[in-house]
Design a protein that fits this description.
6-stranded mixed beta sheet, mainly beta, 900 residues, 7-stranded mixed beta sheet, Immunoglobulin-like, metal-binding, oxidoreductase activity, Neuraminidase, single chain
Length: 900
């Protein structure tokens, strides 16, 4: 890998409560004369002392930092081939990807405001804080993004959105509001751009993310000295062209130059500061499992066994350590282990007993070869020296743990709402790693509902392990003792990475938190994830809804709340009159969470008078959130409406356009402020046939796109959107007023000679087919046929800008600019909701989320005594079948539909 630049490396030495530095080491020069500064917090004067990365902490409730991902050379410690148990040799090594960081708001424990190092800075925030990170991609030839592994937070917008793809030379401003009920503990951050994650994490793009007290506020460990340990693997070889030490690509097969370090230190010396310490381990060998253990003092390396005497009682026992927390979640009691099994990305908080003063012990890593399933080498990774009489492990056996922040609840006693089974395997033909036989993004879509308990059965048919990770959720492995082929877990407590043994079955339960939005679950062997072993995890509201609003001569709207069985009731749960009881002008409707409370709100646009009303779903639609005229009070045409978060703040923005008789201007109003957010022409200015609207992430970009259809004339669909990235050398742009959108897709949803226009909706109909949100279309004349389309998720080019009118309520006469579409559309399925019957008026479409995809609802817009027909996909196919026929009491002139 080419050298881009070199920066001084700033490292902070290991700290313990009540122990402060007594001296500082001198500056140590590398082979090229670089001078990294080190601050010693232990009374040692050499680089083999235990060290931790710099810690950046929030101040005034905010931590604001820039992380610039770039190519660099770094000073790390390299094993001495003549003595693999000796301290490492400080060496300047090329080929790293690291975060050059700049602190804008917050504090640094070394007093600096910028730095760069093999380990990213540790970020420390408290519940309720705002964590703001500008992620700048200066890698040159790779996209990237950022995942906050362990935060229970929404993946929507500019938060923990791993579908984003930040191009080289551009930046994304990410904002994470740490939930007030986020459990304190150890998490981490790293890139998660599919196909690039393994290499970027291996080369150094990772760091700890600590929320509140790293010790989870566990009373029994309060006051113990603490150490953060990032266990990483490197293969360092001489560059064939320059002869310089270079970080070689990490192959699946073990290389002869493979080594394991802790925080970039080879064989650091840990001078324990008390009889017992609390260690936090994070394993970052991106391929597979590593087991760490502490063998008996003086035991020859030839006798090391990570199992100790757990398998063979005649062997000597390893030192027992005790889990008190895992993956950021406190345990209700200690769990004893003779070895720590660290799957990639797993965090373990363990109590370590010090040897007595004068005795030395080794911390050893057993490196497991993923393909051969055997320990290919044991490597001592740290040297421990004792304190006083040493610690007594018996003090921690089956010890009850308490914490005011503990959130553990035993899910084995809960009612299970949904059962799912997923099979992790390798495609024998393509060699791809797949889930249910399909590689990402064609893998299945799981859509859990907030608050429901699901039981997942995970089948691993491969002869090698798969560590499983769910984003933004913790889960509990269930006791399956006595069931052949099933794995019996070592404990039943919360975790977010589960190690799947080869050819085995595991069962775990999840109670889904309110992390609404599109996310993923996957194998946390990064090689496997990058090669396709990932699937969709889209958490949906606890109570999805369908709204049937009366057509041209009506004024009422019926709300149907979905039951626990993924079915809509035959009678509405609420009748609304958003424009007053006397209003009879008809309306269109949509749903969206405009105030970011996890409950869909109802949005209505009047059929006359140009008025929009937004009703709060959390108040059972009793509270008016917005009431405004998006095109001014003189506007007299009908409106169409949609909703979707366009500026990345997590709130659905209200999108409006004329339904006919006016120029095809689309306006978006901020869900947060109600102010005008964007405005553009969807079609040429002379077009007066009306625009149908929808919004969703239909291209897998991590951004909601506006879908526009001609409501008259050719069945043309145009998809518009913003990526919200800015060049690295420019300041962040305001999210309160967006510039011109770019055209993402432009296709005909019918024969070129067809006339009469189309209605559009977005949906995850037929979720078993995988992929991202689909576009549903239906012709507005003749015999209705519903077509469901999928866009090519790979088409993420730069595109061309649309025309943007001045932000004024009267500005309609604006020139349109034709743009080149980026994503091709493919038809997923079609069906005729009314058979061969012709409708006198065009139908309306809406989608309602279920736990496996979406229902599609169809109803005539202007026909009396009409019914609402609801369709679902048949099993794992894309075939549509009628699942319900609703006859709302509000049946005055047909319906406009909206759903969540």
């Amino acid at each position: 890998m080419a050298i881009r630049e070199h920066r001084d490396v700033t490292v902070r030495y290991g700290r313990s409560e009540g122990h402060r530095p007594s001296s500082r080491p001198g500056r140590v020069r590398s082979a090229r004369g670089a001078a990294p500064s080190c601050e010693a917090l232990e009374t040692r004067q050499n680089l083999s002392a235990f060290a931790e990365p710099v810690m950046l902490s929030s101040a005034g409730g905010v931590l604001d930092v820039t992380l610039r991902a770039h190519r660099s050379s770094q000073l790390i410690e390299v094993a001495n081939p003549a003595d693999l148990t000796a301290p490492g040799v400080p060496t300047l090594v090329d080929g790293f990807d690291t975060y050059a960081w700049t602190l804008t708001q917050g504090t640094s424990d070394n007093g600096q405001v910028n730095g760069d190092g093999y380990n990213g800075p540790t970020l420390r925030v408290n519940p309720g804080d705002l964590l703001r990170i500008r992620v700048a991609n200066d890698l040159g030839d790779q996209p990237t993004n950022l995942h906050t592994h362990g935060l229970i937070i929404s993946p929507a917008g500019n938060t923990d959105n791993v579908l984003l793809s930040i191009p080289p030379g551009e930046s994304s401003l990410q904002e994470y509001r740490i939930p007030l009920d986020q459990e304190p503990g150890i998490n981490w951050y790293h890139p998660h751009r599919h196909e690039f994650a393994a290499d970027q994490v291996y080369r150094g793009l990772a760091g700890f993310l600590v929320v509140g007290a790293a010790n989870n506020d566990i009373d029994q460990v309060s006051g113990l000295p603490q150490r953060l340990m990032m266990v990483q693997a490197q293969s360092i070889e001489a560059d064939s062209a320059t002869g310089r030490p270079t970080l070689a690509p990490l192959s699946v097969v073990m290389s002869p130059t493979f080594q394991v370090t802790i925080n970039g230190r080879y064989m650091p010396e840990i001078a324990m500061q008390a009889e017992t310490e609390l260690w936090y381990g994070l394993q970052l060998d991106v391929r597979d499992l590593m087991r760490t253990f502490i063998p008996p003092a003086g035991q020859p390396s030839s006798e090391w066994d990570f199992n100790g005497n757990a398998v063979d009682p005649d062997k000597p026992a390893n030192l027992e350590t005790f889990y008190v927390a895992q993956d950021g979640s406190a345990f209700p009691k200690t769990v004893a282990k003779q070895r720590v099994a660290l799957a990639p990305g797993k965090r373990v908080s363990e109590v370590i007993s010090a040897p007595p003063a004068g005795e030395e012990r080794l911390l050893v890593a057993a490196v497991v070869q993923p393909t051969a399933l055997e320990v290919t080498r044991y490597q001592a990774i740290a040297r421990m020296t004792g304190f006083g009489a040493g610690g007594d492990p018996q003090d921690w056996v089956n010890r009850t743990l308490t914490s005011p922040s503990m959130q553990y609840e035993d899910l084995s006693k809960e009612k299970v709402d949904v059962h799912r089974t997923f099979t992790f395997s390798t495609d024998p033909v393509t060699g791809q790693f797949v889930i249910d036989g399909k590689a990402w993004p064609g893998s299945p879509i799981a859509q859990p509902r907030v608050g429901q308990v699901e039981e997942w059965t995970i089948v691993n048919t491969d002869p090698y392990p798969h560590p499983i990770h769910l984003h933004m959720q913790h889960f509990q492995a269930q006791d399956t003792a006595g069931r052949p082929g099933y794995v019996t877990p070592p404990h039943l407590f919360d975790q977010d990475v589960w190690y799947m043994d080869p050819n085995s079955i595991s069962v775990f339960r999840i109670k889904f938190e309110a992390t609404l939005g599109n996310s993923v679950f996957h194998c946390h062997n990064f090689f496997h994830e990058d090669a396709g072993m990932m699937a969709h995890l889209n958490v949906i509201p606890a109570e999805p809804i369908l709204i049937a609003a009366e057509g041209p001569s009506g004024g009422r709207a019926a709300v149907y709340a979905m039951g626990d069985d993924d079915a809509l009731p035959s009678t509405p749960t609420r009748i609304l009159t958003p424009f007053g009881r006397r209003y009879r002008g008809g309306m269109t409707t949509a749903t969206g969470d405009t105030n970011f409370d996890g409950v869909p709100d109802a949005i209505f646009a009047s059929g006359r008078g140009g008025r929009v009303v937004v009703l709060d779903g959390a108040s059972n639609f009793a509270t008016v959130l917005r009431d405004f005229h998006p095109f001014g009070r003189k506007f007299r045409h009908r409106l169409n409406v949609a909703a979707g978060d366009l500026n990345g703040d997590g709130r659905a923005d209200v999108i409006v356009t004329g339904a006919g008789g006016t120029a095809p201007v689309v306006r978006a109003y901020s869900g947060a402020t109600g102010n005008l957010l964007a405005e553009f022409l969807a079609f040429d200015e002379q077009f007066r046939g009306g625009v149908s609207l929808a919004a969703a992430d239909v291209d897998g970009s991590g951004r909601n796109r506006i879908v526009t259809g001609r409501a008259d004339g050719q069945p043309e669909v145009r998809v518009w959107g913003w990526d919200l990235f800015v060049p690295n050398n420019e300041p962040a742009r305001s999210a309160s007023l967006l510039g011109p959108p770019r055209l993402v897709a432009d296709f005909l949803a019918g024969p070129p000679g067809a006339r009469g226009g189309i209605a559009v909706a977005t949906t995850t109909f037929a979720g078993a087919a995988g992929g991202f949100a689909r576009i549903a279309t239906v012709g507005l004349r003749g015999t209705p046929q519903v077509d469901v389309w999928m866009l090519d998720p790979a088409g993420h080019g730069q595109g061309h800008a649309a025309s943007t009118p001045a932000p004024a309520s009267h500005s309609h006469a604006l020139p349109a600019e034709h743009a080149t579409a980026e994503s091709a559309a493919q038809k997923l399925t079609s069906f005729a909701p009314y058979g061969r019957r012709r409708l006198g008026t065009g139908p309306s479409l809406a989608s309602v989320n279920t736990t496996t995809g979406s229902l599609l609802a169809v109803a005539p817009r202007g026909q009396r005594n009409a019914d609402v027909r609801v369709f679902q996909a048949v099993g794992a196919t894309t075939d549509a079948v009628l699942s319900a026929s609703l006859r709302p009491p509000t049946r005055r002139g047909g319906f406009s539909l909206g759903g969540s």
